[in-house]
UniProtKB/TrEMBL annotation, chain A:
Residues 2-240 form the ABC transporter domain. The keyword Transmembrane helix does not apply. It comes from the Bacteria. PANTHER family: AMINO ACID IMPORT ATP-BINDING PROTEIN (PTHR43166), L-CYSTINE IMPORT ATP-BINDING PROTEIN TCYN (PTHR43166:SF35). InterPro entries: AAA+_ATPase, ABC_ATPase_HisP-typ, ABC_transporter-like_ATP-bd, ABC_transporter-like_CS, MetN_ABC_transporter-like, P-loop_NTPase. Keywords: ATP-binding, Cell membrane, Membrane, Nucleotide-binding, Transport. One of its GO terms (cellular component) is plasma membrane. This is Arginine ABC transporter ATP-binding protein. The keyword Membrane applies. One of its GO terms (molecular function) is ABC-type amino acid transporter activity.
Amino acid sequence: MITITDLHKQFHNLQVLKGISLTVEKGKVVVIIGPSGSGKTTLLRCLNALEVPTSGSVQIGEVKLDFSQKVDRSSIPRLRKQTGMVFQSYNLFPHMTALENVMEGPVTVKKADKDSARAKAAKLLSKVGLGDKLDHYPAQLSGGQQQRVGIARALAMDPQVMLFDEPTSALDPELVGEVLKVMKELAQEGMTMVVVTHEMGFAREVADEVIFMDQGVIVERDTPAKLFAQPREERTRQFLQHLKA
Amino acid sequence: MQMFLSNFFDNPERLNRWIDIAQSSFLPLLKGALLYSLTLAIVSFFFGLILAVLTALARLSGIKPLVGLARFYVSLIRGTPLLVQLFIIFFGLPSVGIMIDPFPSAVIGFSLSVGAYSSEVVRAAILSIHKGQWEAAYSLGMTYWQALRRVVLPQAARVSVPPLSNSFISLVKDTSLAAAILVPEMFRKAQEIVASTYEPLLVYSEAALIYWMICFVLSFIQDRIENKLDRYV
């Protein structure tokens, strides 16, 4: 489903990604962990070209972009249509209700007709447990509710892959569970997911594979059971110990 | 002051004359205000805002020739008096064969002015919208123009209502400058009435009062718009 080949990303003089290669099969859940500055968020943002990589290629489904050559501008929205993204700070559109937020992609980008988009949006919001909040503006919702609207908004575009960028990091601890629960359900339905998170419990329980990144490279990748119990690399061990402390 | 008042009130004929002139001039003045002053302000503000958004986008585009052009335009318009600009358009351009009627000349002059001043307001408003809003729009597959139209501009509009209302109210009063290029707006009407009645204090005060009334109503409308736009924050 996702094939990343030798991806590099450089900001001015800073090498953030130093040759990342990775494949993710359809229906798998991959969790990326690592210290801040390790490049994990940048890697995720390269998958939908919110950051344009310096070189290397990204393929999602049928759409392949090779950033080593000049990228055709029209192909970037095509890549983005394959992916749905959920942000750490939700980034809901504050001037639209929950329902309008979820309808916005299908109506504006896919030119879906409004009635069917509305019906679909209402269904998705019920699915994330917000069937009674359709007409609320983001400012009237709690962080956990906003993030669930964010997930519904991304799902409305029928993405092949869902990307989560620290989706619970901005939430009060008591609201984290409701968002993780929705993500767990999505995983069980067979959605392909790439998740950057600090929630090790979620990684342990839901991930098919955990990737540990540090200083722009993938240090180690394994099943959660193996990676958490017996990391092969010293840096992974240090990071995990640091979390426990 | 006391002498003036006693003269004034000891002279019932003058008082009656004032009441007559005030009554007979009110409708022509109001007509000039609504038909020309306010119309001129609304039409110019409409075109001016389009210019302002385009100029702001050009400044933000990062494309060198566009940025340069936008800066040049803003600098030129802000650096020269509006009255001089109006004179160049109406009295100057005919000497190179470009004849424009008074009203369209005024619309051109005022639109260019609004475009330059308000472009800075619009630019600041667009910059005030959090980067995450663009990213959320892009992540749904929107193009630059879709993100701008559906997500960024509606939020920027809310931020710019107070400063733009200010500009509009200034513009309504600035339309009096159009009197100088023969637009029959309220101030020119007032000048004509003064020419025949020799009562400048009365007639100009009456005109001032009508400007004030209009701006009073506009401030009220501004409050209504702000309340309406604030409902989601």
